UniProtKB/TrEMBL annotation:
It comes from Daphnia magna. This is Cytochrome P450 305a1. Keywords: Heme, Iron, Metal-binding, Monooxygenase, Oxidoreductase, Signal. Belongs to the cytochrome P450 family. It comes from the Eukaryota. Its cofactor is heme. Residues 1-19 form the signal peptide.
Length: 498
């Protein structure tokens, strides 16, 4: 009896200690022992965590502190000042261990997006340097991109011609083109648009992103519990079975490259360059981080981060333009004036301020990564004067900044002109707009993503008129949930412009 009483007191003491908020912790709602605030998020917004966090912040302030699970402090950052300070603070540049993300990388901390420290710096720098050399963000891959634009346009044209009312379903149609551009850099190949194996891989990648739960997925669950209990894996959303075929496909592609064994001068894609580095390092450094598993994991990160986000951005831009025919016509006028009979190129870009403002406004209104992948406090640090304990998960809410009425008048209204000077001749870059993040963790694919987003959206709008289907509701701007947000499938009337 005495033993049970002591054990109960000890257990209660332990739980209270674990849920005690540290001194000077940011204000925020309290949850329950063991589960923290997790069960209550949905009462603020049943569907979207970024909206729930924004609403909580409207009550508690720009930096909110709460607990998820028994001992994980979560810091939610919702104002521009706090966001900038957090993104530029190297002590907040870590990433939490996440069973969901590790399921993509053989249960180990590999890749670029969910690693930190020396390992992250080395692998990120190597990847960025070589992708840049291979053409990332350069006009040298513009021809390849224009080839993909041409194929996409043909595909849409055929679909439009084969329907008596010219109605085309644009669900998932941009992914193939975007992946082909990435795949050419990574593996030196392209896929056929309707290749069924490729379509299966795309679907698996999409499903992984659409079914991801950003907070549950970051709960610190010990590996032995995960292995043992299926319901825990399901609750936090570990979906290894979706990633396995992707891992297998990448592994086979690497094996093909190994068999080819290109000479130094022939190393024409990222896999070649990485394999060359692996060989060099193996001779010089037996404990090298350059391994085949790391290469596979890096490619998974590039596709995971790059495919859904870029194709989603193009999709949302088209939806905004279908909903606002006046803006679409104004953009078409500018494209016709500046590019004549040709498709827009990167060189045209600086002469297309209105087009640029439309692309920016679509990203502001429909932010594809409203919460960045969670950051992590590597050591105790400060944010807006509050203490952020080591081990905190830091959630950066870009949506809250891009929808903050302090910086954006009528933030919910789609109005490209807000990004232009008075006579509309120049784009004004706002300090409060950074869809690719800031600081050392900022998006690795920004230059490629910006060029792809511009070339595809501008070419589609130049080539076609996109109109709502008569007697049907307008295509929805409500995103589908997940690690990043996607657009819902939508149908439009597509007419080629003469
Ligand atoms: C419109 C398209 C895109 C948007 C809006 C976007 C946005 C972002 C954002 C907000 C972050 C997180 C920054 C942070 O954690 O603070 C990020 C990270 C990242 N992005 Fe992108 N991204 C896009 C396209 C791409 C593409 C095309 C690639 C690769 C080819 C890519 C690769 C990455 C990687 C690897 C990271 C993790 C970087 C790290 O942790 O060091 N992204 N992106």
């Amino acid at each position: 009896m005495i033993f049970e009483l002591c054990a109960t007191i000890l257990l209660i003491g332990f739980i209270l200690k674990m849920t005690k908020r540290p001194h000077n912790f940011p204000p925020g709602p309290r949850g329950l022992p063991l589960v923290g605030y997790l069960p209550f998020f949905s009462s603020w917004d049943p569907q979207y965590p970024h909206k729930a966090m924004k609403k909580i912040s409207e009550v508690y302030g720009p930096v909110v502190g709460l607990y998820v699970g028994p001992s994980r402090p979560v810091i939610s950052v919702c104002s521009h000042e706090a966001m900038k300070e957090a993104m530029l603070n190297d002590d907040l540049n870590g990433r939490p261990d996440s069973a969901v993300m590790m399921a993509r990388t053989f249960g180990e901390k590999l890749g670029i997006m969910f690693v930190m420290g020396q390992f992250w710096q080395e692998q990120r720098q190597f990847t960025m340097r070589h992708l840049r050399d291979l053409g990332f963000g350069k006009t040298s891959i513009e021809d390849q991109m224009m080839g993909e634009v041409g194929d996409l346009i043909k595909d849409i044209e055929n679909k439009s011609q084969s329907d008596p009312e010219r109605i085309v379903d644009l669900k998932g149609i941009f992914q193939v083109s975007v992946i082909n551009i990435l795949w050419a850099l990574v593996a030196g190949e392209r896929f056929q648009r309707h290749d069924s194996k490729f379509q299966d891989l795309l679907r698996a990648n999409e499903l992984f992103f659409r079914t991801g739960k950003i907070f549950r997925g970051s709960m610190p669950v010990p590996a032995f519990l995960l292995k043992r209990f299926r319901f825990i894996r399901e609750f936090i959303g570990v979906k290894a079975e979706l990633i396995e075929p992707i891992q297998k496909f990448i592994k086979e592609t690497i094996e093909d490259h190994q068999q080819r064994n290109p000479s130094d001068d022939e190393a024409g894609d990222f896999i070649d360059v990485y394999l060359k580095e692996m060989k060099k390092q193996k001779d010089e450094n037996p404990s090298t981080n350059f391994t085949e598993k790391q290469l596979i994991s890096t490619i998974i990160d590039l596709f995971g981060a790059g495919a859904e986000s870029t194709s989603g951005s193009i999709g949302f831009a088209i939806i905004h333009l279908v909903r606002d025919q006046q803006v679409q016509q104004k953009m078409q006028m500018e494209l016709d004036q500046v590019c004549g009979e040709f498709f827009p190129t990167i060189n045209h870009r600086s002469s297309l301020p209105y087009t640029e403002s439309v692309l920016m406004e679509a990203q502001r209104c429909s932010t594809i990564a409203p919460l960045t992948p969670p950051h992590y406090a590597i050591k105790d640090t400060k944010l807006l004067g509050y203490t952020i304990p080591q081990g905190s998960l830091v959630s950066l809410n870009l949506h809250a900044v891009f929808q903050d009425s302090k910086y954006w008048k009528d933030p919910e209204v789609f109005r490209p002109e807000r990004h232009l000077n008075d006579d509309g001749s120049k784009v004004i870059k706002s300090d409060h707009f950074y869809p690719f993040g800031l600081g050392k963790r900022m998006c690795l694919g920004e230059s490629l993503a910006k060029n792809t987003y511009f070339l595809f959206t501008a070419a589609l709008i130049k080539k076609f008129r996109f109109e709502p289907v008569p007697n049907e509701p307008l295509p929805s701007l409500d995103p589908t949930n997940g690690f990043t947000l996607g657009y819902q499938g939508f149908k439009v009337v597509v007419t080629p412009r003469s």
